Amino acid sequence: MIAPADSERSPSPTSERSLRVWDLPVRVVHWGLVVCLAGSWWTAENEDWERHLLFGYGALGLVVFRVAWGMVGSETARFRSFVRGPAAVLAHLRELARPGPLPAHPGHNPAGALAVILLLLLVGVQTLSGLFLSGGDLLVVEAPLSGWVGTYVTRWLGDVHEWGFTLLQAVVALHIVAALGYAVLKRRNLIVPMLTGRDADLQGPAPSMAPLSRAIVLGALVAAGVWALVRFA
Fold first, then answer.
1. Within 83-197, where are the H helices?
2. Are 191 and 179 in contact (CB under 8 A)?
3. Residues 167, 124: Cα–Cα separation, whole Å
4. DSSP secondary structure, 152-184, as one string
5. Which of 57, 89, 101, 118 is geometrically suited to a Cys-Cys bond with 187, CB 3.0 to 4.6 A?
6. Which whole-number Å values give the CA distances from 118 to 83, 98, 101, 107, 172, in the listed order?
7. Which fold has domain 21-197+211-232?
8. How far apart are alpha carbons 129 and 127 in whole angstroms?
9. What is the helix (H) or strand (E) element at residue 48, kind and residue range?
10. CA-to-CA distance for 167 and 10, rounded, in angstroms?
11. Residue ranges of the chain with pLDDT lower than 70?
12. CB 188 within 8 A of CB 178
C-alpha cells in the first residue's frame, strides 16, 4: 500500500493544536498601552496638552488594571506565575546563548517578566508625575493634582516626567528589538500570540483563564476611580 503524499496527509492533532495562553484583558492592556504611549508622544510633540492628558489618564487606568489583574486574573497574567528570581533569569539567558530554537514558555519568560515589571513601573511613574504638572511647566493646562504641591516639587516632577519618557522610549525600543530577535534568531514569535491569545508552539495543559466578567467588573472600578480622580481632585 502506497503512503499518501505529505500534502495529502491529514494534520496531526498535535501539529494543529494551539493553546490559549493570553486572555483578552492582558492583550487589551498591552495594545492599549501602545496606543496611549504613541498618543502621548504625538500630542506632546504637537503641544496638544488636553489630549495629552487624556492619553495619560488612559495609561494610568491600564497600569492600575494590569497590576490588579496580576493578582486576580488568569494564570499567565498573575505575577506569581511569571516573576522569577535571578537564577531563573540567568538560566533563561543561557538558553538564549545556545544555538537553535528556544523552548516555548507558557506566558512570559523570565527575561520578559523583567520587561513587564520595568515597563509598568516606568509608565506608572510617568502617569503619576504627570498628574501634578501645571501651566508654565510642561503643560499649559492644569493637571488634576497640580495644586497639591509647591512650585519646587512641581518643577522636579516635570523633570522626572520629561526624562522618564526618554527612558521609557529606550526601554520600549529594546522591548521591540528583543521581540524581533526572538522571532528571527530563536524562532519564537511572541507578537502573534499577543494578538490572537494563542500559541501553537506550546504543548501540555492550557493555562487556566479567569472569567471575562471579573475583568469587566475590575475595569469598571478602575475607570470609575480614574474618573473620580480627574473630576473631584
1. 86-97, 110-130, 151-185, 191-196
2. yes
3. 13
4. HHHHHHHHHHHHHHHHHHHHHHHHHHHHHHHHH
5. 101
6. 12, 26, 26, 17, 10
7. Fumarate Reductase Cytochrome B subunit (1.20.950)
8. 6
9. none
10. 50
11. 1-17, 135-141
12. no
pLDDT (tens digit, 9 = 90+) per residue, 177-228? Answer: 989 988 888 888 889 999 999 988 777 788 999 999 999 999 999 999 999 9
For the chain, report the end-to-end CA distance as a whole number of angstroms. Answer: 79
Domain residue ranges of the chain, discontinuous segments joined by +: 21-197+211-232
Q: Residue 182: CA atoms inside 13 Å, Cβ hemisphere, count?
A: 21
Q: Do the beta carbons of residue 164 and residue 157 sit within 8 Å?
A: no
Q: How far apart are CA 29 and CA 32, in angstroms?
A: 5
